[in-house]
Amino acid sequence: MSEQNKNSDNAVVSPERRRFISAATATAAGLTIAPGVMLYEVAHGRPEEQAASSAVRWGMMVDATKCATGCDDCVTACNTENGLTPVAESAHPRQAPQWIRKLELQDPLTQMETNLPMMCQHCAEPPCVDVCPTGASFKRADGLVLVNRHTCIGCRYCMMACPYKARSLVHESLNDTQKPDVPRGIGCVESCTFCVQKIDRGDGTTACVEACTASGHNALVFGDMNDPESEISKKLRELPTKQVRADLNLNLGVRYHGI
C-alpha cells in the first residue's frame, strides 16, 4: 500500500478530497445551530447565539375588505426589497418569479369581487418540505418556510406539492439584480420568505406590509402569532379569519379576513 493511501496522520489528501471534507465540515457546523440557520447566517450576519426560536411564530393577517382593486404596492415593494424583476419587465414573463401576486376572486352566487394578495402561506406542516429530496426546502424554528439555494437541485417537486402555487423556478441570470442579503440563484426554486432578512435585522415587519401601510390601506398585519400582545394576535382575536384550503390541515401562517 502506498503512503498516499495509508490511514495515518502523514497520509496525503487529494485536493478533491480536501474540498469535500471542508464542505462537509462547514455543512455540519451550520446544521448544529438550528435547522435553516446556516442558509442566512452569513448573508444576514445573524450571530449563532441568536438562532431562530420556536417561541416565536411569524405570521400575517390579510384584511381582504381593505385590499384595494388595482393596487399592487405590496408586489412592487416585494420586488424591490428582494431584487426580483417585475413580470412586465422580464424577458420571459410567464417564467418570471413572483413571490407575491394579487388575486381577483368573484363569488359565483353574489358576483361580489374580492382582491387579495397570495404568497407562500408558511405552513406549520409544509407539503413542499415533505417532498423535497435534498432537504433544500425546510421550515425554520420560528415558522418561516425557506429554500436553501445551495442544496436545491431545481427538481420542482415542491412547486407541484404547493397548493397555493406560491413557488417558482429561477430561469434567468441574476447578476444584475442580486442583493447581498437575499441569496438567490438560477436553477433554484424560491418563494416568499416573509422578508427573513428584515426579520433577522430586527425590523419585525415585511416590505409588503410597510408599503400597504404607507399607502393608507392597512390591509396587511405582520407579527408574532405566539405573542398574545402583538398586533396580529389582537387582530386575529377581533376579526373572523379563514385559512385558504383549511381542509388540508396545514396550519397556515397567513390568515385572511373577508373571504
Can you characterise this structure?
The protein is of the alpha+beta class and 259 residues long. It has helices at 15-31, 37-44, 73-82, 127-131, 157-161, 196-201, 207-214, 231-238; strands at residues 58-63, 100-106, 113-119, 137-139, 145-147, 168-169, 189-190, 220-224, 254-257. The radius of gyration is 21 Å and the shape is globular. It has a three-stranded mixed β-sheet. Strands 2-3 form a two-stranded antiparallel ribbon. A two-stranded antiparallel sheet has the order 4-5. Helix 3 crosses helix 7. The chain has one domain: Alpha-Beta Plaits (2-Layer Sandwich), CATH 3.30.70.
Features:
disordered N terminus, three-stranded mixed sheet, Alpha-Beta Plaits, about 15% strand, two-stranded antiparallel ribbon, about 260 residues
**What kind of sheet is the major sheet?**
3 strands, mixed
Name the overall outline: globular
What's the CATH class label?
Alpha Beta
What percent of residues are in strands? 15-25%
H and E string: HHEHEEHEEHEEHHEHE
Global mean pLDDT = 82
Span from first to last CA? Answer: 73 Å
